[in-house]
Amino acid sequence: MLSDEAKKEIETELRQYEQKQAGSVEALKIVQRRHGWVSDQHLRDVAEMLEMSLEELDGVATFYNLIFRRPVGRHAILLCDSVSCWIMGYDRLYQHLQNRLGIGLGETSKDNRFTLLPTCCLGDCNHAPVMMVDEDLHRDLDPEKVDEILGRYQ
């Protein structure tokens, strides 16, 4: 169930839109920021607030790959697997992350610190390979940089 604070934050956000449904992505982002992911119950609560069907809002939630519909670790790593990143060393980075974290794509580390997710493009091809950790973009990566970056996130 959504907290009163989350409902108030969503209602404040919705004032920016002529139609409540237009604020669906922002409403889901508010829920995710507060809870780490969007559960089925949260989805039902938000759908009711937005006067949308559960199926309509789930369609929005599952279309945007940055809305998490299942629990993730404290930090989400989005590893770009675009053509540019493949050419510039995706395989080496992916292997390094697998070995370092002990997880594959779509999995969460045993300490719940990181979830490793693929993403089709982060839009920074001239600095490939790239990844995002939470909302931070990291560019021109190699395994040594990845180790240094992971150390910043506890």
Automatic annotation (TrEMBL):
GO terms for molecular function: 2 iron, 2 sulfur cluster binding; metal ion binding; NADH dehydrogenase activity. Transmembrane segments: none annotated. Its cofactor is [2Fe-2S] cluster. [2Fe-2S] cluster binds at residues 80, 85, 121, 125. Gene3D superfamilies: Glutaredoxin (3.40.30.10), NADH-quinone oxidoreductase subunit E (1.10.10.1590). InterPro entries: NuoE-like, NuoE_dom, NuoE_N, Thioredoxin-like_sf. Keywords: 2Fe-2S, Iron, Iron-sulfur, Metal-binding, Oxidoreductase. Binds 1 [2Fe-2S] cluster. SUPFAM superfamilies: Thioredoxin-like. It catalyses: a quinone + NADH + 5 H(+)(in) = a quinol + NAD(+) + 4 H(+)(out). Belongs to the complex I 24 kDa subunit family. Composed of 13 different subunits. Subunits NuoCD, E, F, and G constitute the peripheral sector of the complex. This is NADH-quinone oxidoreductase subunit E. The gene is nuoE.
